[in-house]
Design goal:
This protein has about 110 residues and is α+β, with helices and mostly antiparallel strands. It has a domain at about 30-105: Histidine-containing Protein, Chain: A. About 55% of the residues lie in helices and about 20% in strands. Strands 1-2-3 form a three-stranded mixed beta sheet. The longest helix has 26 residues, at about 1-25. The protein is elongated and about 80 Å long. The protein starts with a helix and ends with a strand.
């Protein structure tokens, strides 16, 4: 009997809290997109700092965009080794779900 009352109390608590979270989401529809944007900005900054400070990528020009945890790397690198290094470093950052490669190898002029 006590277990049943405990179960019903827990179930009611979970139901009420779920309704509260739903009400919050309905009242604040843009809140989740702001959180995702902030997470993308922070992730973008971590990837950019890592790539721009790596000695093996000296001479590279990067364009970095992040959307929903997907990092898009663009710009130019001096050789294939630098291209692979940039992709590996970007994918090693915690929070990166995927890396999209739009990098080009720029041969010396």
């Amino acid at each position: 009997m006590i277990k049943r009352k405990l179960f019903l109390t827990c179930a009611a608590t979970l139901l009420i809290s779920g309704v509260g979270f739903t009400a919050f989401a309905i009242d604040h529809p843009g809140r989740s997109s702001v959180v995702v944007q902030n997470a993308d900005i922070a992730l973008n900054e971590r990837v950019e700092t890592l790539l721009r400070t790596d000695i093996g990528l000296a001479g590279s020009r990067f364009r970095i965009q992040t959307r929903g945890g997907v990092v898009i790397l663009g710009g130019g690198v001096p050789d294939e080794h630098a291209l692979n290094r940039a992709l590996d470093l970007a994918s090693s950052v915690r929070g990166v779900r995927e890396v999209s490669n739009e990098l080009e190898i720029e041969f010396p002029k």
